[in-house]
Amino acid sequence: MLKVAKFGGSSCASAEQFQKVKNIIMQDRGRRYIIVSAPGKRNAKDTKVTDLLYKLYDAVEQDGDAEGILKKIQKRYQDIIDGLGLDFSLSEDFQNIFDNLKSGAGKDYAASRGEYLNAKLMAAYLGFQFIDAVNCIEFNDDRSCNFKETEDKIKKQLEGVDYAVIPGFYGADQNGHTITFTRGGSDVTGSLIAAGINADLYENWTDVSGFLVADPRIVKNPEVIDYITYKELRELSYMGAGVLHEDAIFPVRKEGIPIQIKNTNRPEDHGTMIVANTLKKPRFTITGVTGKKDFCSINIEKAMMNSEIGFGRKVLSVLEDCGISFEHLPSGIDTMTLVIHQEELEKYEQKVLQGIQRAVNPDLIELESDIALIAVVGRGMKSSRGVAGRVFSALAHEYINIKMIDQGSSEYNIIIGVRNEDFENAIRAIYNMFVLSAS
Length: 439
Ligand code: ASP
Hints:
Elements: E1 3-7, H1 15-26, E2 31-36, H2 49-61, H3 66-84, H4 91-102, H5 107-126, E3 129-130, E4 138-139, H6 147-158, E5 164-167, E6 170-173, E7 178-180, H7 186-196, E8 201-206, E9 227-229, H8 230-238, H9 249-255, E10 259-263, E11 272-275, E12 288-301, H10 311-321, E13 335-341, H11 342-360, E14 364-377, H12 387-397, E15 404-407, E16 413-419, H13 423-436
The structure holds aspartic acid.
């Protein structure tokens, strides 16, 4: 089985973590292409190397203490080298990086060096070939990934290479300038490499044993999701469950390659398998419950709204003119509600209200702030009766008022709006109803 394995920042944070990574890789010779992040935090108070690199860039640009920061970064790597007892040096690389930064290499170049150095070090430690990501990942001028070129480059670079380590997070544009993905982007690199070589599996090694049914900061010891479909994950990640970079789904999904989330500190745990489709019955009726606070709603009322052709279009074009996207659009016979990120609306509040007034001349416009949206997601909900009823009775038992309900036609997603202050209680109530009382 041909595998691409990506190890995140905490998996590469110290010599001890490097040893765990090596054990994992050596246990399965199918793990042939390894993607690494920059060393992450060793403890809660620690700083990620990537953050130090951004600081280094600022210090070089603004005549700050660049040498002091560079020394700190150098020490992070040296500690790993010493801890592993390796006969290996990155001194020359550090000198080059510093020279390049002083002669104007950009911010992306600075940030990318964390992955670059770490991949070199990991390659030396494993005895694998180092392949630079600038030769594998190509970006367009607008910083989006050029998938076609990237696929070709990956195929070419990895042809005939049995084992390699490739840095995550960055690539280059057509002119060879280094460009990074957004933060956490090594996940995307791993996905592109897996798709490019048509791997059987993309393993994403991190410091948790997979996706959890609910946020552990809200629910105590939540269950792990063992199988999840791409579609379900999209609904959940969109609402803020951040184990995997959102853009990491697309490349592997297109090729039908599953992703397995695994824990470097507990490699025996199954983790979460993300698949296109599965016959595997979900353990619980819901796959996950998640959400986000700080939405607001604009409630528009007008008699005979239902027969006024073009009403919706006119209202939405006001949002479009202000560059605001809406999250949900529940409606009644004479009412229409726009649910929007509060932060987004705040900037254009009066312009939007005025625009709606002029566009459709409503009888009433009401604003409401501090709404939390909760997504209850699960492929198991589709054919099961009474799911919505159970969600509502769970909330009623906790005296939580539901402000909005939205069920997509796919039937595996119910969105509920509650007050911000009820958010945590609502998540716990739904979790207890579907998971605790079922296990
Ligand atoms: N090192 C980068 C970051 O901290 C990218 C990554 O870890 O994926 O965001």
